[in-house]
Q: What sequence folds into this?
């Protein structure tokens, strides 16, 4: 059995069978990441295929074989964000006055109990633009400045949308107001 690093070296040498092995190792991981941004199963599957086609063509530029998983996942996330942008999802610019007023409020986590299921339900209830920014920052750990670039908006807008989404998720968890 080949290691992921061996498979990548073989792919870089043009071995298509090795690429099938990489796909089998990483497809579920990438698909789950894409599904956080794209609700339609068929569209997510199409984006997954496009992701691996792009990765196959660019695998020669991958310098560190151990980074293949995060690298291909990032390609998938970028494709999902592009799909959202192509749907003309508007990430509206917010004025700087609003940005200054929003600060991260401290959270007293002892005030409420939560499970991953409840957190996921609360996130799913967010408006799409807030949910996208929240997931990119809180789940994928992408810096807000980079998120703004991905979405074609100002960094202050990404920050405000993240803070509002975070506040809303915490409120829903605290109050139990998300749909069950």
A:
């Amino acid at each position: 059995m080949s290691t992921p690093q061996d498979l990548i070296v073989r792919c870089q040498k043009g071995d298509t069978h090795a690429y099938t092995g990489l796909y089998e190792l990483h497809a579920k991981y990438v698909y789950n990441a894409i599904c956080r941004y794209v609700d339609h199963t068929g569209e997510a599957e199409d984006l997954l295929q496009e992701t691996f086609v792009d990765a196959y063509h660019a695998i020669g530029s991958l310098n560190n074989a151990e980074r293949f998983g995060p690298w291909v996942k990032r390609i998938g996330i970028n494709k999902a964000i592009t799909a959202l942008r192509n749907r003309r999802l508007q990430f509206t610019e917010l004025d700087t006055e609003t940005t200054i007023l929003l600060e991260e409020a401290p959270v007293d986590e002892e005030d409420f109990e939560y499970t991953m299921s409840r957190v996921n339900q609360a996130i799913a209830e967010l408006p799409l633009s807030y949910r996208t920014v929240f997931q990119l920052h809180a789940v994928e750990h992408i810096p807000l400045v980079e998120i703004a670039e991905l979405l074609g908006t100002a960094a202050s807008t990404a920050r405000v949308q993240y803070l509002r989404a975070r506040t809303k998720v915490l409120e829903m968890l605290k109050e139990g107001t998300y749909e069950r």
